[in-house]
Amino acid sequence: MSFLARIRVGRQVPLRFVRSIQISADTTKLQDEPHHTEPFTVKLHEHSFLGYKCEPPKLDVEVTKEELLLMYGQMQTMRRMEMAADAAYKAQLIHGFCHLSIGQEAVSVGLEHGADANDRIISGYRCHPLVVLRGGTVAQVLGELMGKRTGVSHGKGGSMHMFTDTFRGGHGIVGAQVPIGTGIAFAQKYMGEKQATFALYGDGASNQGQVAEAFNMAKLWNLPVIFICENNQYGMGTSAERSSANTQFYTRGDTIPGLQVNGMDILATREATKFARKWAVEDGNGPLVMEFVTYRYGGHSMSDPGTTYRTREEIQRVRSTRDPIRGLQGYIEDWGLATPQELKLIDKEAKATVDAAVEEAKAAPEPLADDLFTGVYPVGDPTLTRRGREREEIHHY
């Protein structure tokens, strides 16, 4: 029995948060015969996108077997990494704040496959997959969570302070990344760069005043910034319906056009990202507000069981009928691109990668006392006089 047939019954069960957009993970259909070496065309569900003051992307998209398998492997690796972080936290190897994105893999991986390698991405604290996809490693993320010198921020930042050259951080102040991302886009325009900035925030952060202020400035200056609301239905323990008078987050930009996207289907998130980038950079239309409708399986953070404000049945219903990894698995198997046995080999490779990263992070040394004042300024910064810099620091630069 095919994957689609196995879950078709479950698809009839309505979830209370479904509005007018389709958020199943497996509704894309073949248009051409699938090909093992050449691109072929598939058609997204007609309700994969909803536009606000703009025409939504086309539903016919090109895919390749190679990219589908790559995305599948990346999503499996991201989920196993987050599961490993969960286990390490419970084993008291990780302390402090830790926010996992299990269930939201189609957002991070789809975003990466739709963006340009030199675009900038900035996010909140549910950011671990983006760090890996933007140049970090699983070992660096887990090392950072465990407070080790091999971490991406040398063990001094933890979950909320991870950076790479093109990922400008997970930020702990709710909504603060949105005006920062707007500033990055301003710099891109000022410097004449043909790149975009993707600023991600949650439905809980959407009511922050600084978010509205950033929208206004971005529109005034026509900046190449895409504001992305990861609507996973709950801001901490409060449902979107209880916290927001307007739960259509893609319409929040007022004069800024918006796009609501099925955030559980990776082909929809990839295509929406491509559309947004073209809108902002190539066509010069300025900012766009996107809403990825998704779902987190776990609690808000490791201190939240996630079942006091929603039922276990709701979570299980999403897991069994709308899981983004199972959805992509269904495409690959039903289109004859790989067998279940071949996909299991990819699963094993993802597990081996994460298991090795866990052991590497465990064995890594902790930061030294001398590391306390390093990393405050960029290496090679030529500015020798700056408020806060001590005289003895200067010889390091």
Automatic annotation (TrEMBL):
It catalyses: N(6)-[(R)-lipoyl]-L-lysyl-[protein] + pyruvate + H(+) = N(6)-[(R)-S(8)-acetyldihydrolipoyl]-L-lysyl-[protein] + CO2. Its cofactor is thiamine diphosphate. One of its GO terms (molecular function) is pyruvate dehydrogenase (acetyl-transferring) activity. Residues 74-367 form the Dehydrogenase E1 component domain. Keywords: Oxidoreductase, Pyruvate, Thiamine pyrophosphate. InterPro entries: DH_E1, PDH_E1_Alpha_Subunit, Pyrv_DH_E1_asu_subgrp-y, THDP-binding. Pfam families: E1_dh (PF00676). The keyword Secreted does not apply. It comes from the Eukaryota. Its EC number is 1.2.4.1. The pyruvate dehydrogenase complex catalyzes the overall conversion of pyruvate to acetyl-CoA and CO(2). This is Pyruvate dehydrogenase E1 component subunit alpha. It comes from Hypsizygus marmoreus. The lineage of its organism: Eukaryota, Fungi, Dikarya, Basidiomycota, Agaricomycotina.
